[in-house]
Design goal:
It is elongated and about 90 Å long. A three-stranded antiparallel beta sheet has the order 1-3-2, covered by helices on one side. It has six helices and three strands; from the N terminus they run E-H-E-E-H-H-H-H-H. The chain is 55% helix and 14% strand. It folds into two domains: 4-68; 80-147, no CATH class. A hairpin with a 2-residue loop joins strand 2 (42-49) and strand 3 (52-59).
Length: 153
C-alpha cells in the first residue's frame, strides 16, 4: 500500500536565515506530535528550511493502521457470575453474546441455567446451541413458575 501525502504547511514561524532556535522547534514538534498521536491516522515531520519550519503531514495507509490495531481484549473477570457466564458462552460457542450470558448468570437461578446447559451439551448435531439454550431456559422458567403457582393454590 502506498501512503498518501496530505499537504505541506510552510511558514509556521519566520526566524530569519538561521532557522528557529532548538527550543521553539521542539515546542512545535511536541504540540504537532501530540495532535497527531491523538488521531493515530497521520504522522508528521518538521524540517527547518531557510528561516521557516516545514510541517509535512502524511496519512498512513489503511493496511498500516490495521496491522498496528490491537485485538479486542476480553473484559476483566471480577466476579464469579462473570466467570460462569464466560464459561457458558464458550461451551455454547456463542462468544459474541458473552454479555447476555453474564447477565443471565447474575440474574437467573443457577439450577435452571445448569439444566439448560446440560440439555444443550447432551443434544447431538445442534446447529445453534445458544438458541437451544435460550429456548430450554424459557421452558424451564415457565415450568418452574407454573409449578410454583400450582403449589400456592
Amino acid at each position: 500500500m502506498m501512503t498518501t501525502a496530505v499537504g505541506v504547511c510552510c511558514a509556521v514561524h519566520n526566524f530569519g536565515s538561521y532557522g528557529p532556535p532548538n527550543s521553539v522547534t521542539t515546542d512545535i514538534r511536541n504540540s504537532v506530535s501530540a495532535a497527531v498521536t491523538k488521531s493515530r491516522t497521520t504522522e508528521c515531520h518538521l524540517t527547518p528550511f531557510s528561516g521557516h519550519v516545514l510541517l509535512k503531514i502524511v496519512m498512513k495507509s489503511v493496511a498500516d493502521l490495521l496491522k498496528n490495531k490491537q485485538p479486542k481484549q476480553q473484559p476483566a473477570i471480577k466476579h464469579e457470575f462473570q466467570a460462569y457466564g464466560q464459561r457458558l458462552a464458550q461451551e455454547l460457542h456463542d462468544l459474541p453474546k458473552l454479555s447476555l450470558y453474564m447477565k443471565l448468570a447474575k440474574e437467573e437461578n443457577r439450577n435452571l441455567l445448569e439444566q439448560a446447559r446440560e440439555h444443550v451439551l447432551g443434544s447431538e448435531k445442534v446447529k445453534k446451541p445458544g438458541a437451544l439454550f435460550m429456548v430450554k431456559l424459557k421452558q424451564l422458567k415457565e415450568h418452574t413458575t407454573s409449578s410454583a403457582s400450582d403449589s400456592t393454590k
